[in-house]
Amino acid sequence: MGGQADEIRRFLKENYRDTLGLEAAIQLGVRALSVTQNKTLTEKDLEVAVLDRTKERRKFRRIPPEALAQLLRAGG
User: Fold this and answer.
1) Are 67 and 56 in contact, with CB atoms under 8 Å apart?
2) C-beta neighbour count of 63 within 10 angstroms
3) The domain containing residue 57 runs over which residues?
4) Which of 5, 6, 18, 27 is deepest in the core (most CB within 10 A)?
5) What total number of domains does the chain contain?
6) pTM, 2 dp
7) Residue 59: in which H helix or E strand, if any?
């Protein structure tokens, strides 16, 4: 997040909702990071992972680039 951390935090604070699903949460994250960029971020620019707290033990999993591309396209 670098020097733009405050701006990104502010964007997330204004737009995040606890009810967001995975697709919407990823799209929001990309929008937040894009706030300070001069380009649209794609799956090639990102590394995304999920921490599933509903599992008996916390489980961390990466979202593969192909799946991430689909999630980003779904948001148009």
Assistant:
1) no
2) 18
3) 2-74
4) 27
5) 1
6) 0.80
7) strand 59-62
Largest separation between any pair of C-alpha atoms in the chain: 41
Model pLDDT for residues 35-64, shown as the tens digit of each residue: 888 778 889 999 999 988 888 887 889 999
HSE, side-chain direction, 13 A CA sphere, residue 13: 6
User: φ, ψ for residue 60 (rounded to 5)?
Assistant: -100, 130
* Nearest Cα to Cα of residue 60 among 48, 68, 72, 44: 48
User: Tokens in use for 71?
Assistant: 């999630």
Rg of the Cα trace of the chain?
13
Beta-bridged to residue 61, according to DSSP, are 50
The sign one gets for the Cα dihedral 49, 9, 26, 1 is: negative
20: buried, middle or exposed (CB in 10 Å: 19+, 13-18, 0-12)? middle
Q: Are 6 and 31 in contact (CB under 8 A)?
A: no
